[in-house]
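Let's practice the habit of predicting before peeking. Look at the sequence and jot down your guess about where helices and strands might fall. Then scroll down.
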Amino acid sequence: MERHTCRPDVSPLKQMIMKRVKHFLLASCLFPTLLGAQEMASAYFLELTPDAQSAGMAGTGLATTDNGTTAIFHNASTIAFSQEVMGASYSYAKINQDYALHSASLFYRIGREGIHGFAVGFRHFKDPKVLDYRPHAWDLEAAYFRNVAKNLSLSLTFRYLQAKAAESADSKNSVCLDFGATYYRNMALLDEMASWSIGFQAANIGKKLDGQKLPARLGLGGTIDLPFSIENRLQVALDFNYLLPSEIRHLQAGIGAEYNFLKYGVVRAGYHFGDKDKGVGNYGTLGCGINFWPIRADFSYALADKDCFMRRTWQLGVGIVF
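Done guessing? Here is the structure:
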């Protein structure tokens, strides 16, 4: 049997290049179209959960109605059923030690009844440095949401993307749309304070970025909210997402739970189910937070195998609502 060994005379430059190649091979589990195309811009960072609250629940959020400050990244139509009038948030994610994702967002419900409003969001994703340059991509998005019936809301999100894969490469850009819908109902439990909701989203529908398809997907999710008392509350969410581009076409799912205790404390847990060859694979999540109205702070950590892109990923977020 032929034995392969590493050459002892590998130069520092070659070692650095080999290390970076390893990073790109690892990232290929999330960004398959990058494999063998290092100098091509990519928009697959849009599939990363950009906020610590949802990340602690395995990325769920398609039908969650209490995350208005970050809902534009999941399903902006859920904001129509928020209990808050306006809010803003910022989150930072350190992904697999070498990747970074910044996100910021805000929302505002217009009018006395707040049946419609808008939200804006921004994301900035950075790849590992390659030969003194760090490839990056960013997006700016704006959404409008509105109640069209007592229990039904719709939303439309416009997104502008720009990416630069190498110092000598030109910046590439694209635009896309999201469509969202949410159905919300109270239940005859806990003095009718309990509720359930269903959310739908068609996301990232738009033109190619640098010749590559955007990660278009269809999502369907559900959430049950059980407020046992003013100080204790349980929320359970389940999301399904189907990625449409042929290169990464697959079904993925996430289930998560959040428990608010003693009015101010929050703990979260979840599990993400995915395809290890076309997506990030399977991994668990844990999260915690402090909710001291109007300010909240959240933290999440991914429990992933060493071969998973989400290994050693943590996120920290802060938000304010009124």
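How did you do? Residues 12-27 form the longest helix (16 residues).
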